[in-house]
Amino acid sequence: MIGALELGLIYGVMALGVYLTFRVLNFPDLTVDGSFTTGAATAATLIGSGVNPVLATLAGGAAGVIAGIITGLLYTKGRIDGLLAGILTMIALWSINLRIMGKANFPLLRSETVFTPLKESSMLGTWVGVGILFVALLVLKFVVDWFLSTNLGLSIQATGDNGPMIRSFGVSTDFTAILTLGLSNGLVALCGALVAQYQGFADISMGVGLILVGLASVILGQAVFGQRYIWVATLAVIFGALLYRLIIFGALKVGLNPNDMKMITAALVILALLLPRWGFLKKLPSLRGRGGRVQPREPKSAEPAVALTAGVGVIDAEEAAGAKAGKE
To answer: What is the rounded CA–CA span in Å between residue 195 and residue 283?
Structure first.
């Protein structure tokens, strides 16, 4: 079970990336199936060439950023449907990933990775290793929370909520879409680089169906915890990734065929989508939010709103009086 928790925490990085596009930007991005493998292939190849594992991992994330930007350019500048743009980039990445690795599978069993210090100190595979990975993931979560609370992050949220409205304020929705897709796929590729080092190999097919895993993590977590506030939504995504891995671990433990895991994942996503509509999760009012999307914090006092309303009333009255005088 500890191994499932460690892998779930690593996949939490990918879930945060999927959350940025699926929930925040409201964009169905299928690039992640290819960018995940791109991050793994890039990191594995560089590590195999003697590059520092940390630098190789960052390079894998950067490769994912480039893949996301390409999808964003196809969508915004090429005016290609978002779903099709992601599919096109994903298909192209299959050949690119083979070019990067030079073969379908790249082993890392004898290479030094970012997890080597944990393995040498016998902390990987223990609760100490789980705690270290959890703290590292929390740091990344807080960075995402902070970014989404900045002016740029709020512009990205507004782009997903109401693109025409935010464009009327002079915000370039093309830029926010490209940036979000780049950051999302960067996180996904970073996760791929970490998973390759954790498992000891990078494989060309390791990203197949990954979007379903990401959606399962996002939807499962937010079905239980809700998504009223950003910090709650990102925390729900992390626990969703853990819950997904534990469910898969339990399914394998009871003797289910590993070839059925994709079908089980699809069933989990369907249940997570349907159960809230059927009212089965209404028994968790303390955990679930009331809104369907991330909502801004409510003002502490109603006085500004009252003052604004009063001011609008005065302006309207003055305009009415001026119009009446003009007619006379």
So the answer is: 36
Write out pLDDT tens, residues 138-193.
999 999 999 999 999 999 999 988 888 888 888 899 999 999 999 999 999 999 99
Residue 326 pairs in a beta bridge with: none
Domain 2-278 -> CATH class: mainly alpha
pTM recorded for the entire structure:
0.81
The answer for residues whose C-beta is within 8 angstroms of residue 245's C-beta and 6 or more apart is: 4, 5, 7, 8, 11
Q: Which H or E run includes 203?
A: strand 201-203
Tell which residue, 181, 187, 184, 182, has the closest CA to residue 58.
187
Which value, in Å, is the radius of gyration of the alpha carbons in the chain? 23
> Alpha helices of the chain — where are they, by DSSP H?
2-19, 32-48, 53-76, 82-101, 116-120, 127-149, 151-161, 163-167, 173-199, 210-225, 230-253, 261-278, 303-327
Distances (CA, A) of 158 to 85, 153, 165, 226: 22, 9, 8, 19
Burial of 111 (0-12, 13-18, 19+ CB in 10 A): middle
Q: The tokens of 250 are what? A: 């339990």
Under 8 Å between Cβ of 191 and 36: yes
